[in-house]
Design a protein that fits this description.
- This protein has 253 residues and is α/β, with parallel strands linked by helices.
- The chain has a single domain, classed as NAD(P)-binding Rossmann-like Domain (Rossmann fold).
- The protein is built from 8 helices and 9 strands.
- The strands form 2 sheets. Strands 3-2-1-4-5-6-9 form a 7-stranded parallel β-sheet, with helices on both faces.
- Strand 4, helix 4 and strand 5 form a beta-alpha-beta unit.
- Helix 4 packs parallel to helix 5.
- The longest helix is centred in the middle third of the chain and has 32 residues.
Length: 253
Amino acid sequence: MSQRVLVTGATSGIGHSLVINYLEKGDVVYACGRSAEKLAAISEQAQQLSGTLKLVQFDQLEENELVSALNEVEALDIAILNAGDCEYIDIALDFDANLFKRVIDINLTSVGVLVREILPKLKEATTANSSVNPQLVFVGSSAAMMPFTRAQAYGASKAGIGYLADSLYIDLKPHNIDVSLVLPGFIKTPLTDKNDFEMPFLLTSDEAAKRIDSGIQRRHRHIAFPKRLIWSLKFASWLPATWWRKIMLNSDQ
């Protein structure tokens, strides 16, 4: 039985791979993105696949545009809120408040508007078929598990996404809506291509999409990967604060 799946940030990276993954499975996929040109490119790819593609164009930072575009979306079985950006604050003493606001707005504040607009569409799926629990999926980051140098804006935004997902998990469970939080490690995407540091256990976006799909199918509350990186971060977080602070300070030299 096909599913109705919405993916934001669908035109590149993990989002694009998720769209292709679900189209290959024969699902109805709402691909959300800002660029009409890039959405059209997905449409060309979809002609080779068995699923049904529906393009939803909007700028996530433009609330009226977002609301108008999502009015065209019907009941959903899965909504994956993946769109986001990463910018680094290179000089902490010259803290860039505009950069900080920009990252928080796209990665966190605008997600609140998405949640408001998408929840009724997920709830509609439970009304139509009480045996089906629709799923709301947030794509966070393993970077939120530990403080990293230069990542004040990105890390804060993803930590906020993590808290949002875990809190909604509690409050939406009685309404038969499941919530999952994705915590990926380093994934090769246009965003990470800009990184000037070593990225251990780097995965492709296609590999990430398959792991996310598998976790969603199993209805895992947290979908964290790759395991070697996740356990390394967990172990570091269990160390005394003075130890991991020293590790982070040394790694920045």
